[in-house]
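> call design_seq(struct)
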């Protein structure tokens, strides 16, 4: 596709795995959730259920385990969790070219009711005492390891956790489900662009271009996708949906792949229409504190007013986007908010 992997008619890379991957699937300790009276795999969990289940699991644990865990010092986790929870509240969001920018409106989403509500849900669960103590000082792999060792009942993470658990904690009774939703009747899908998650490319000075090209051609074929999935499993499945059956022999993992795929719709990519958008992305600088840092500060109690902080973030981010657009225009780019 011109603007994605083809430039001036020349192919620069080929896809080999799907971009329909989320880091916010609900992964959980089946024993703890059943004891608390919940079955997220078969009954869609709402935000209200999520909070109540976390509280009940914490009560059942009596200090030995807790309702939820999250790698709170890995900043990128925060924006993913709040943003994806907001989608389940019906916040329309099109595109992922610039994080949390709605391509339909050209505006950032931070100060919307849905983003604020998602943040307030996490704060309420924190006030309930449902988070694993010390969650702000651990990263995502540490949180993944802790839940498999029985420290918590639920985690919002990606399917890459599953092969690790099966290898390192074979007795761990886990299962997966759709992310908790605010309103099952009013959800917005997650969007991915036409670009895939991972690409492969060939060095222009390669001594064996024909052999390399044959390998790449096989890799993107259906047989090649079957072979790739046998190696990568659910952690990094191929882009061809026909080949998913070889990603696992575990029905729980195959069900998780099905649920994950249904979460997504392919959204528009401004780069296809106008490659100068890339010049804006190159100019754009992260504001400080950024979205992840603001959320972390709220969870730590260093910041206290969600609406005030999210509105301030919106204004700072919008000003920086305007600056980046102007800088790109000054370099000859044909771009605007419109």
């Amino acid at each position: 596709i011109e603007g994605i992997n083809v430039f001036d008619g020349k192919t620069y890379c080929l896809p080999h795995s799907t971009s329909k991957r989320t880091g916010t699937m609900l992964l959980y300790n089946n024993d703890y959730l059943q004891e608390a009276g919940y079955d997220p795999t078969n009954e869609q969990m709402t935000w209200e259920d999520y909070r109540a289940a976390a509280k009940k699991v914490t009560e059942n644990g009596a200090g030995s385990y807790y309702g939820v865990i999250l790698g709170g010092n890995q900043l990128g986790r925060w924006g993913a969790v709040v943003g994806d929870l907001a989608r389940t509240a019906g916040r329309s969001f099109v595109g992922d070219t610039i994080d949390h920018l709605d391509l339909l409106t050209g505006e950032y989403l931070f100060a919307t009711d849905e983003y604020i509500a998602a943040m307030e849900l996490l704060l309420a669960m924190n006030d309930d005492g449902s988070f694993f103590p010390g969650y702000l000082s651990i990263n995502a792999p540490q949180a993944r390891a802790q839940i498999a060792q029985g420290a918590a009942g639920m985690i919002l993470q990606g399917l890459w956790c599953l092969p690790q658990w099966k290898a390192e904690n074979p007795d761990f009774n886990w299962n997966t489900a759709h992310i908790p939703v605010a309103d099952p009747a009013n959800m917005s899908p997650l969007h991915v662009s036409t670009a895939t998650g991972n690409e492969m490319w060939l060095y222009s000075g390669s001594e064996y271009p024909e052999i390399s090209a044959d390998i790449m051609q096989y890799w993107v074929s259906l047989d090649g996708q079957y072979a790739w999935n046998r190696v990568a499993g659910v952690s990094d499945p191929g882009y061809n949906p026909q080949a998913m059956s070889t990603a696992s022999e575990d029905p729980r993992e195959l069900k998780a792949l099905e649920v994950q795929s249904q979460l997504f719709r392919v959204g528009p990519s401004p780069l296809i229409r106008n490659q100068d958008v890339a010049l804006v992305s190159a100019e754009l600088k992260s504001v400080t504190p950024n979205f992840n840092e603001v959320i972390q500060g709220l969870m730590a109690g260093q910041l206290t007013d969600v609406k005030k902080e999210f509105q301030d973030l919106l204004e700072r981010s919008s000003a920086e986007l305007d600056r980046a657009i102007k800088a790109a225009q000054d370099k000859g780019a044909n771009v605007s908010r419109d």
